[in-house]
Amino acid sequence: MVEYEEVEWDIKYDGDDFNVPLNSVHLMGQIWKPEGEPKFVYVFVHGLAVFITFKKDFFKIIQNMKGVAFACDHLGHGRSPGARVSCKIDEVVEETKQVIMLAHKRYPNLPILLHGHSMGGLTVLKLAMTNQDFVRQYLCAIIAEAPWISRCPQREPNCCQMCCIRCLNKCCCSKTQFDGGVSHFSNDLAPEWVQKMKASEYMGTTMTPRLYVSVKDSIKFVQENKSEFPREV
C-alpha cells in the first residue's frame, strides 16, 4: 500500500491574475511569486481537460527554489472562456508564446524554463519545432513531461471512428463533447488529491472533435519533424 505524507492538497487559484489575448478573447492565467527576489521564471502548460492548478505542487517547489511560476488556462479550460475542451494545439502554442513574452516583459533579466505536461508536452514540442528563433531568444530549457506523442492502443479509435471524428470537425459539430477514454488518475496518486480534483468545477472528462483532430495532426507533425527541434535548448 502506498503511504502519503500528511499534507493539505491545494488546487486553489490563489496567485496573481493576468490575461493574454487569443483570437477575439482573453485567456486567464496566474502568477505565483517566491519570497524575496526571484532567480528564474517557470512557465507551465497544462494538459487535456484539466486546469493550471492541476500541478500546483510543482509551483511550490519552484517558489522554494526562488522561481516565479506562470500558468494559463487554455481556451475552453479552467477559468478561460470558450466552448469546453475545444482548443486546438496551435492555439495553445500561440497562448504559450504570449505567456512567455509576458514573463519576459516582467522579468527581462531572468532565464525562462518551459514545462508542458501530457497535451502540454505535445504543445511545447510543437512550439519548439515551429518557432526555433523564438525558443532560442526566450527560453533556456524545455521539459516535455509524458508528452502526448504516442498511440494508446487501449483507447485508439479505429479508422471508421477517426473518419467520423474528422467529419464532425468539419461541420457544426466540431465542439460537440465526447468521451475520449482518457483517465487522468492512476492508482498511485494520493486519494485526497484525486477527490479534490474530481470535485472541482473546472475538471473535465471529455474532449471535442476540434481538439482531438488537432492533437492527432500535431502528433504526426512532431513525429515526422524531430530534426526541427532546436538541440541547443
Overview of the molecule:
The chain has 233 residues and is of the alpha/beta class. 35% of the residues lie in helices and 16% in strands. The chain has helices at 56-64, 89-106, 119-130, 132-138, 159-169, 191-199, 209-224; strands at 16-22, 25-32, 40-45, 67-72, 112-117, 141-145. A six-stranded mixed beta sheet has the order 1-2-4-3-5-6, with helices on both faces. α5 (159-169) crosses α7 (209-224).
Features:
233 residues; alpha/beta; 6-stranded mixed sheet; 35% helix; disordered N terminus
Which structural class fits the helix and strand makeup?
alpha/beta
How is the biggest beta sheet arranged? 6 strands, mixed
**What is the overall silhouette?**
globular
Count of helix runs = 7
Spatial sequence of strands, sheet with the most strands: 1-2-4-3-5-6
List SSEs in N-to-C order: EEEHEHEHHEHHH
Q: What would the average pLDDT be, to the nearest integer? A: 92
> What percent of residues adopt helix (DSSP H or I)?
25-40%
Question: What is the strand content?
Answer: 15-25%
Give the strand tally.
6
Beginning-to-end CA distance, first to last residue:
40 Å
Q: Which runs of at least 5 residues are low in confidence (pLDDT < 50)?
A: 1-5
What gyration radius follows from the Cα positions, in whole Å?
A: 18 Å
Quick structural summary:
The protein is an alpha/beta fold and 233 residues long.
